[in-house]
Design goal:
249 residues; alpha+beta; Rossmann fold; 2 domains; six-stranded antiparallel β-barrel; two-stranded parallel ribbon; 8 helices; 10 strands; 31% helix; 27% strand
């Protein structure tokens, strides 16, 4: 990306993409940095000098409306011509639609940004998720009998749904647990910075340093300020009931 400040937030970070693709059984993954030099290549140069010469590409899969090369001047028809000349295979993926509407990353980003997790999951084919590292927190949850894991601040490029309390699923090393997550500030404790703090149901253990995947399942409520710790505990108990119910659905 030549102008990162103007880039839209990402649905899937590079590390998340690698994990998803590896899960499909792909043996080798290469991410080509989009540099100014690469941006200056015409479409024929990109196919022949990069994909063919550097990666020995034998088969190319691209979307029906994909544009590439300098000024996005390359398209499906050009690739098909090059495939005939250079003897490689081209597969063009048709538009995926929902009720006649083509599904695009822009459409999914809008759904996530507005908290429409059900639509985002339907269009992605999986729950919207985030990979993060568990770090040590302040231990406030333990003081009220509700231990939590704290995730390191996500990459600022990652698109998050609106702040609030969510029912979530958390996966690591093949294990999966349901839980609830506070995404945002913790105003009752005077903490105004955004955090990602998850209480796992029916789990006791140490996950410090582990990389986990959090799947947003359902939004339960806004972030709130409570007049006392007991009022917060009472609400968290109600949240836990609502989250367990959502996870069963």
């Amino acid at each position: 990306m030549l102008n990162p400040s103007a880039a839209p937030r990402l649905l899937t970070l590079p590390g998340e993409k690698r994990a998803l693709v590896r899960a499909l059984g792909v043996a080798r993954i290469e991410i080509v940095p989009f540099t100014p030099e690469l941006a200056r290549l015409g479409p024929e140069e990109f196919v022949r000098d990069v994909l063919r010469a550097q990666f020995a590409m034998q088969q190319l899969v691209l979307g029906y409306d994909h544009g590439f090369g300098r000024g996005r001047s390359g398209d499906v028809e050009l690739v098909r011509r090059l495939a005939q000349e250079d003897r490689f295979v081209v597969d063009v993926v048709a538009a995926v639609t929902d009720d006649g509407q083509p599904i695009s990353s822009s459409l999914i980003r809008t759904a996530v940004a507005h908290g429409d997790l059900a639509s985002a999951e339907r269009w992605l084919g999986r729950p919207y998720s985030l990979r993060g590292v568990v770090e040590r927190g302040a231990g406030r949850g333990r003081t009220i009998g509700i231990p939590t894991i704290n995730l390191a601040s996500p990459d600022p490029r990652k698109l998050l749904p609106p702040d609030g309390v969510y029912a979530v699923r958390v996966e690591w090393r093949g294990a999966t647990h349901g839980g609830m997550m506070n995404q945002g500030s913790r105003p009752t404790f005077g903490v105004h910075a955004r955090g990602l703090e998850v209480h796992l149901f029916d789990f006791a253990g140490d996950l410090y340093g582990e990389t986990v995947t959090v799947e947003w399942v359902r939004r339960l409520r806004d972030v709130q300020t409570f007049p006392s710790r007991q009022a917060l505990v009472d609400q968290i108990e109600r949240d836990a009931q609502a989250a367990r119910s959502a996870l069963k659905g």
